[in-house]
């Protein structure tokens, strides 16, 4: 398996074997950086590679853990955390920004409020592009971080029952995590108020690989005693209109996890959260050994080290780990630097020719904002046509 030169836009870009390999490499990275015991930390030699981070939306964990990962690998970082300081504020297109950064760095990490933005950047860039969150669409590196946390605490994915709770409508973390876990053999339960429920197209993705159809409930107590993992999320308040925000906050008040709830929860259940939390987890339970959200966030550095090292072609075999870094002369020619033109992951819906008179009508999709983007489409399982950028279903003209 080689991830060298590839992009990571969606979890469907990765096969189950590639996810396993990344978990193994992340475990090796965790050991090398002394994740569990700082005294055992090894230091990296200088690595002649640069990461660009282009963040058009706020971030604490994702951006800083990517930067920490690259620095711990021995490489360098540059970028911006506020688009107001970049030429995008002068009207530059995202594609031109990505093309330009390709000449300054070896890998590009991008976060953007529009769905499909990372795909536009990847199409324009000549270096590997990593999606660090594109609107309400997808957040694959958070999913890898979540999977790593589950692997370290539970030891496997197969047969686990995982409750995804909170804003399942706009939460990109659960849009990526639910289908990935289902593919790896976990059973998914969606826990949310009706108005924040998981969109059908993600439910279908979960269903495609699930042994039994995903269950959706409106109250945690209906399923609490079945859970191996409870994954809580905040209401994505920035994705609601101003009029809807007060209502969304009110609804979310019924989904708070506190000591009383943890008393009723299974003793071996773990409680995860991608963070930031707002009110959904009471800090009174932070010392409960089942509350693993800060460990989850800390594991993100090792995961992102592994991902970047694979995409840069610095690890070919998972077991090479951190010590296995080739010297520059020994690095495989293929894929480092530069990138493969196509991703080879499993499960990616096939591109289909653009039918006449079909447009993506999703106002949150990058294809409706970015100039010079030509539409492309995919067939979802079940046959519906979807925009290739945001993956939202589109209406086909009746013939
Ligand atoms: C998440 C995100 O940005 O989608 N945060 C993160 O990357 N850890 C979750 C969130 O903002 O609610």
Description:
Strands 7-6-5-8-9 form a 5-stranded parallel sheet, with helices on one face. It has a 4-stranded parallel sheet with strand order 2-1-3-4. Helix 1 crosses helix 5, helix 3 packs across helix 4 and helix 5 crosses helix 10. It has 3 domains: 158 residues, 3-Layer(aba) Sandwich (Rossmann fold), CATH 3.40.50; 157 residues, Aspartate/ornithine carbamoyltransferase (Rossmann fold, 3-Layer(aba) Sandwich); 49 residues, SH3 type barrels (Roll), CATH 2.30.30. By secondary structure, it is α/β, with parallel strands linked by helices. The protein is globular and about 55 Å long. It is built from 10 helices and 12 strands. It is 30% helix and 13% strand. About 4% of the residues have low confidence. The longest helix has 19 residues. Strand 5, helix 6 and strand 6 form a beta-alpha-beta unit. Bound molecules: N-carbamoyl-L-aspartate. The site of N-carbamoyl-L-aspartate (NCD) has 12 residues, from helix 2 and helix 6. The site of N-carbamoyl-L-aspartate has 12 residues, from helix 2 and helix 6.
What string, H for helix and E for strand, traces the elements in order?
HEHEHEHEHEHEHEEHHEHEEE
Count of individual helical segments: 10
Strand content: 5-15%
| End-to-end C-alpha gap | 44 Å
The CATH architecture assignment of the largest domain turns out to be: 3-Layer(aba) Sandwich
Which structural category do the helix and sheet elements fall into? alpha/beta
Assembly of the depicted chains: single chain
The total number of structural domains is 3
Number of strands: 12
């Amino acid at each position: 398996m080689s991830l060298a030169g590839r992009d990571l836009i969606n979890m469907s870009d990765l096969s189950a074997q590639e996810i396993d390999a990344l978990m193994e490499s992340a475990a090796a990275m965790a050991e090398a950086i002394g994740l569990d015991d700082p005294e055992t930390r090894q230091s990296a030699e200088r690595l002649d590679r640069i990461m660009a981070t282009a963040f058009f939306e706020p971030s604490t964990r994702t951006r800083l853990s990517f930067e920490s990962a690259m620095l711990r690998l021995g490489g360098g970082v540059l970028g911006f955390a506020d688009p107001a300081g970049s030429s995008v504020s002068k009207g530059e297109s995202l594609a031109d920004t990505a093309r330009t950064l390709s000449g300054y760095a070896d890998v590009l990490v991008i976060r953007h409020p529009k769905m499909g933005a990372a795909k536009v950047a990847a199409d324009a860039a000549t270096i590997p592009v990593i999606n660090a969150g594109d609107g309400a669409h997808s957040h694959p590196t958070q999913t890898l971080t979540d999977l790593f946390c589950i692997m370290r605490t539970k030891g496997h994915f197969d047969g686990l029952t995982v409750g995804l709770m909170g804003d399942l409508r706009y939460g990109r973390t659960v849009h990526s995590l639910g289908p990935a876990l289902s593919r790896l053999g976990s059973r998914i339960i969606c826990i949310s108020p009706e108005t924040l429920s998981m969109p059908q197209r993600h439910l279908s993705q979960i269903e495609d690989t699930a042994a039994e159809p995903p269950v959706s409930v409106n109250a945690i107590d209906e399923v609490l005693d079945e859970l191996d993992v409870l994954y809580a999320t905040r209401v994505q308040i920035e994705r609601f209109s101003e009029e809807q925000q007060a209502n969304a906050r009110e609804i979310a008040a019924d989904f708070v996890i506190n000591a009383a709830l943890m008393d009723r929860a299974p003793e071996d259940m773990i409680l995860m959260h991608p963070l930031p939390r707002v009110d959904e987890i009471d800090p009174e339970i932070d010392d409960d050994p089942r509350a693993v959200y800060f460990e989850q966030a800390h594991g993100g550095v090792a995961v992102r080290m592994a991902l970047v090292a694979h995409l840069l072609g610095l690890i070919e075999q998972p077991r090479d780990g951190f010590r296995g870094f080739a010297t520059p002369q020994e690095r495989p020619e293929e894929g480092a630097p530069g990138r493969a033109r196509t991703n080879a992951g499993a499960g990616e819906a096939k591109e289909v020719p653009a039918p006449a008179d079909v447009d993506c009508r999703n106002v949150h999709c990058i294809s409706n904002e970015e100039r010079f983007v030509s539409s492309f489409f995919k067939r979802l399982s079940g046959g519906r046509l979807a925009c290739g950028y945001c993956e939202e279903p589109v209406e086909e003209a009746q013939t």
